[in-house]
Design a protein that fits this description.
By secondary structure, this protein is mostly helical. 85% of the residues lie in helices and 2% in strands. Helix 4 (262-404) runs antiparallel to helix 15. The two termini are 13 Å apart.
Length: 1061
């Protein structure tokens, strides 16, 4: 095709070139000619002109011939192109369009069927997965229940042994009696202890009161003593002042006497000398006393150092004794620890032996259960064999009866259509005929089946009962029925069930639709009435919550309604179905029901339509149902034998399945018992191993204790400890006492030496004072009698003042002494009272302590007995609980087993359904594969039809293939036409090329002549004009021919271009 296009394009270009050449020839400018001799010009002119004219003539003949051939070829091309070729193209395009349409239709049908099949398969696979999960859960529950039962039985054995151990050769009544006695004793002891503590509290309170009083009196006594001390101090000061005044007076008297008597003065001088000698003697004696005192203090230090040394030796012995006591304590603790470990090991061994005995008892019980399970399996196998024989015999009966029921079956297969035909309900028949796409007459999963029709009729009764008894819309009449309304409801629910859930709107009737409800009126009436009542109660309108399109406006109100009503099955908040049922303008209804899994994914589909018709054309539900039952019974009774036999067969099949399931259950139980036996044997073995291990532990612990008791190390430590204690005792009782006595002795001597030093110091002081006094008196005597007298009088007056002050101070002192004495007597009296109360309190404390000890002893006994009783009660409760749990498990296990049997049946049916769906899916995929293969150019294969669905898909494939065969034939015709057209184009191309070449030759000849004429310019006028005219004519002729050829070339090219479009 591309080569043909190139040829036509080339032809057009060539024609354009020719046209331009003609124009150039017409409008060409003249150039100067060569300067030639006349002779040369004339000679050339004649020969060249003739030659050129001859060449032009010949070329023009070829051009005309080529033009004629070109025009003939073009005419042939155009005639064929406009007729046969265009028709072939049109037929090819139409066939291609039909094929593509058939292909798209088949592809859409295949893909749609495959998608729906996959969807239904996925739904069933998902449901099967859920059921398998449920099966695993039931198996797990059954296994767990069996294990729990075994564990409970084991625990029961152990608890019973524990209960018997707690009784310890007594009874529960005796233990309870002992607890009650101890409780009574404890109550009495508690009362006695409380009384004792009350007495202690009373005495304590009294003691506290007296102590407070004693403290107050002691405080007053202390204050009085302080005052007495102050008075004594005042009296002592007054006495000292009096003594000083008296001494001064005596001294002044001696001075006065010495001043009056010269002899007495000489005596005073002698007394001064004696005082000096006495002072010297006293000082010498003091030095001797100080020396003695120092020696005694040194002796004290030495004796104290000796005591410290003895005490250090005692402390060293105490350290050694402590170390030995710790060593002995560690040895004793090791023995005690060994005894404790031995006792603990013995207790563990005892418990292990009890556990082993319990496990052996469990093993014995499991063996009994296993023997029973084996016997049950054998008995059940007999039941299975018998059920198989019964079913085989019944199957033969059913096969025979099936042959007798075919005629009746054909009528039953017509479903509602047969009923409508029997009673002449033509309008209802028209409804079924006009809506056959989704209605499979009489199919069990179709609303027209008699069973579904029967169920639908009963729905009307339910709806009417609700309609006439409603408390919101009172006084309504029951709806009537007619066949046409039932047919409308049937075709509408069929389309919904086999497409998608929703209103089909096939007929202008009001409609209620539901899926999955066993009783659709639960959704239409019960749930929506609850919503309606709640709306009325709240004063709301449904339009406040949802708009006319069903979209929620107020989710908060909607959620409040759902939560308030607590209806988990309410899928959305609405009242439309309810108000449809209760609408007073309707007087007729029709219902439909489908039971079974349908392509929309639901296993229950229900429908009810409402309308208003002429009452004369309507029947009551009783009248209509009477007609239906008459028709239904006439069929069903005729077929009753087969159905009854089939029911019996199904029952026998179910019985066989149940017996097989029961056999499986009992075999599983036997397997479980065998596992339990193995588990029990393992546990007995483990318990025996534990007993063996603990027996060895007890032997090892006993040997360790014996070794510790036989060791001499303990005796050696005791002997060494006694030796150290004896040595310490000797040090404390002899050496330390002697050293301490020595210290006390030298301290006494040191103290006596100190007293002697003090006395000697006092003698030295007194001697010094006496010497000072004698010197002072002698000095004052020398002052004269008059001075002595004056000083004596002054001293006398001072003495009188001090004497008077001393009398006052002594009087106050006497009073203070009397006050202190009085308060001391009072304190003494109250203190004696306090001592009496304290003695009584000590006695009461002792009594309370004894009462507490008695109460604690009784309480300990009570707690111990109560603990035994509680443990006994707890164990008894555990035994009751375990028995109850065992009974529950023995009840639950068969229930779980039955559920598992039912689940197995469901799984089996669902496996069959999934297998059926997968098989159908494979068939559809085979059709799709054939479709893909065909579309890809592979040869067509044969179909293996297995179902109506696949058959319909294959029919669409056949339509597609037939369209493709038509398309192939159109292609073949087109290709033949296209080949012939190509030959015409080729001939046209050849003629065009030939025509172009002739044109080129003519152009060249024309140019040669034109060039020649130019050269001959200037020759004779006649010849010149003749040459020029010839050129002009030729040029014009070439130009005109070129224009025609150019137009023809463009036209041919344009036609080809349009055909390619």
């Amino acid at each position: 095709m591309k080569n043909r296009n190139k040829t036509l394009t080339g032809l057009a270009v060539a024609s354009m070139v020719l046209t331009q050449a003609g124009q150039m020839s017409v409008f060409a400018k003249e150039e100067p000619m060569k300067d030639l001799s006349e002779k040369e010009v004339v000679g050339v002119e004649k020969s060249q002109k003739e030659l050129l004219e001859e060449q032009i003539k010949n070329t023009l003949d070829r051009v005309n011939e080529a033009k004629k051939e070109f025009e003939m070829a073009q005419e042939t091309y155009e005639i064929y192109n406009k007729n046969d070729y265009v028709l072939a193209v049109s037929n090819r395009e139409l066939a291609e369009k039909n094929y593509l349409s058939a292909k798209d239709d088949a592809q859409e049908a295949i893909v749609s069927a495959l998608e729906k099949q996959i969807q239904e398969l996925e739904v069933n696979q998902s449901a099967l997965k859920e059921e398998n999960t449920k099966k695993k859960d039931l198996e797990s529950k059954l296994d767990d229940a069996n294990k729990e039962l075994l564990q409970a039985q084991n625990d029961l054995v152990l608890k019973q042994k524990e209960y018997e151990s707690l009784l310890a050769n007594t009874s529960q009544e005796e233990i309870e009696q002992r607890v009650n006695e101890l409780k009574t004793q404890l109550e009495s002891a508690t009362v006695a202890y409380q009384e004792a503590t009350n007495k202690v509290s009373e005495l304590s309170s009294a003691k506290e009161e007296v102590e407070v009083k004693v403290l107050g009196l002691q405080s007053a006594l202390e204050n009085a003593k302080v005052e007495l001390t102050d008075a004594k101090s005042d009296a002592l000061n007054a006495q000292n002042e009096y003594d000083v005044a008296n001494a001064d007076y005596n001294e002044k008297l001696e001075i006065y006497n010495g001043a009056s008597d010269p002899e007495l003065k000489a005596e005073y001088e002698k007394q001064v000398v004696e005082a000096e000698n006495a002072l010297e003697v006293a000082q010498n004696n003091l030095q001797v006393a100080l020396s003695v005192q120092q020696s005694k203090e040194d002796a004290v230090l030495s004796a104290e150092a000796n005591v410290a040394a003895v005490e250090n030796e005692i402390r060293d012995l105490e350290v050694q004794i402590g170390a030995k006591e710790n060593e002995l304590l560690n040895l004793n603790e090791s023995i005690a620890s060994a005894e404790k470990e031995l006792n603990a090991a013995k207790d563990q061994l005892t418990k292990a032996i009890e556990t082993k005995q319990g496990m052996e008892e469990v093993l014995k019980n499991v063996q009994v259960a296993l023997d029973d399970a084996k016997r049950e399996v054998e008995e059940q196998q007999f039941n299975v064999d018998k059920a198989q024989l019964d079913m085989d015999a019944q199957q033969k009966i059913v096969n025979q009866l099936r042959m007798d029921k075919e005629q009746v079956s054909q009528k039953i297969a017509l479903g509602s259509k047969g009923f409508f035909e029997a009673y002449g309900y033509t309008n209802a028949l028209k409804v079924l005929e006009q809506n056959s796409k989704y209605t499979q007459i009489g199919d069990e999963n179709d609303a027209t089946s008699l069973e579904n029709f029967k169920k639908a009729i009963s729905m009307v009764r339910t709806g009417n009962a609700l309609r006439t008894s409603d408390d919101n819309f009172k006084g309504l009449d029951p709806l009537k029925v007619n066949a046409e309304m039932f047919a409308v409801s049937q075709v509408q629910v069929n389309q919904m069930a086999k497409t998608e859930y929703g209103h089909t709107k096939l007929y202008r009737v009001s409609e209620n639709a539901a899926v999955e409800y066993e009783d659709p009126y639960v959704g239409w009436y019960t749930e929506e009435k609850a919503v309606y009542d709640y709306l009325q109660q709240k004063g709301w309108d449904i339009n406040d919550i949802r708009d006319s399109q069903g979209n929620y406006i107020d989710l908060d109100k909607a959620n409040e309604i759902v939560e308030a009503l607590n209806f988990p099955d309410i899928r959305w908040v609405q009242v439309g179905h309810y108000t449809n049922m209760l609408n007073s303008k309707y007087n007729v209804t029709g219902t439909a029901w489908i039971e079974g899994k349908i392509s929309n994914g639901y296993s229950r589909n229900s429908n009810q339509v409402f309308y208003r018709l002429d009452p004369a054309s309507l029947l009551t539900i009783d009248e209509f149902e009477s007609q239906f039952n008459e028709y239904y019974d006439s069929l069903m009774n005729a077929d009753g034998a087969y159905e009854d036999a089939n029911v019996v067969l199904n029952g026998l099949k179910n019985e066989l399945y149940a017996q097989n399931a029961l056999l499986t259950e009992k075999q599983n139980k036997q397997s479980s018992m065998e596992v339990n036996k193995q588990d029990a044997e393992n546990k007995v073995g483990m318990a025996q191993n534990e007993v063996d291990r603990l027996s060895k532990v007890v032997r090892d612990k006993q040997k360790n204790l014996d070794d510790l008791c036989m060791d001499d190390a303990s005796l050696n430590v005791v002997n060494e400890l006694n030796r150290l204690k004896a040595l310490k005792s000797n040090k404390e009782s002899l050496d330390l006492v002697h050293a301490q006595q020595e210290v006390e002795s030298v301290k006494q001597e040191s103290a006596e030496a100190g007293v002697d030093v003090n006395n000697k110091e006092a003698l030295v002081k007194n001697a010094q004072m006496e010497l000072n006094k004698r010197n002072r008196i002698l000095k004052e005597v020398d002052k004269g009698l008059e001075t002595a007298y004056t000083n004596l009088e002054i001293s006398k007056n001072v003495l009188k003042e001090k004497e008077s002050a001393l009398d006052v101070a002594n009087t106050v002192l006497s009073k203070k002494e009397s006050s202190v004495l009085s308060k001391e007597n009072e304190v003494g009296y109250v203190s004696e009272s306090l001592k009496g109360i304290s003695r009584d309190l000590d006695v009461a404390d002792g009594v309370a302590e004894r009462k507490k000890d008695e109460m604690d002893t009784i309480n300990n006994n009570y707690e111990a007995s109560l603990s035994v009783q509680n443990r006994l009660n707890s164990t008894s409760d555990s035994i009751v609980e375990l028995n109850t749990r065992i009974q529950e498990l023995e009840s639950v296990i068969p229930e779980i087993s039955n559920n598992r049997v039912s689940n197995d049946l469901v799984v089996k049916n669902m496996n069959n359904r999934v297998a059926e769906l997968e098989s159908l899916k494979l068939e559809i995929e085979e059709v799709k594969s054939e479709f893909d293969s065909f579309v890809a150019g592979h040869p067509v294969g044969a179909y293996a039809l297995h179902s109506d669905l696949v058959k319909s898909l294959c029919e669409k494939m056949d339509v597609m293939k037939e369209s493709y065969r038509s398309y192939e034939e159109a292609i073949k015709v087109f290709e033949e036409a296209d080949a012939l057209n190509a030959e015409n184009v080729k001939a046209l191309d050849v003629a065009s090329q030939k025509y172009v070449l002739a044109q080129l030759d003519l152009e060249k000849a024309n140019k040669d002549l034109s060039d020649y004429l130019e050269e001959m310019k200037g020759v004779e006028e006649t010849e010149d004009k003749k040459s020029v005219n010839t050129g002009a004519q030729t040029a014009f002729g070439l130009y005109a021919l070129g224009g025609v050829l150019g137009f023809a070339g463009v036209a041919v090219s344009g036609k080809r271009a349009r055909k390619e479009d």
